[in-house]
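Changelog entry: the RidA family protein record was regenerated in this release. Current contents:
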Amino acid sequence: MSESYVERLAALGIVLPVAASPVANYVAVVRTGSLLVVSGQLPLVEGRLSANGKLGGGITVEVGAQAARQCMINVIAQLQAALGDLGKVRRVVRLGGFIACTPDFIQHATVMNGASDLAVAVFGDAGRHARSTIGVPSLPLDAPVEVEGLFEVEDC
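Regenerated C-alpha cells:
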C-alpha cells in the first residue's frame, strides 16, 4: 500500500471524530479472532444528527447518501478507537445499512453507496465488501440511516 488509510482520510478532508459511546446495553466493537464487528453507527456530527427523518418523506437521496457517508466516518472512528491503528485493517468484509424510509421508497442502494463509496476511497481494494441494505420504518433518534460493519484485522 503506497498510501496509508490515514493519508487517504486526510486527502478526503476527513478528520475522525471521537468514537461515540454506546447508549444502551451493548458495546461499540466486538472482536473474535481476526474479525471485528462495529455496532451500527448513526450520522452523528459533534453529538448531533447531520439529518433526521425518512427517505421518501422529506429526506432526499442526496442527503441520505451524505448521512450514510457520515455513518461510515463514525464506523471508521470506532475502528481507530478499537485498533489504535487503521493500518491493522486487512479488509472491509461486510457493511449493513438500515434506511429509515416511507413504504414506497426504493432507492436504498443509492443511499447506502454513500458508505460503500467511502469504504473503497479509504481502504482501496480492501474496502470492496459484501453488503445488505434494508428499509426500516424508523431508527433511533429519528436518524435516516444507520451503518454497521464487519472487518478482517491483523492479529495482535
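The chain has a mean pLDDT of 95.
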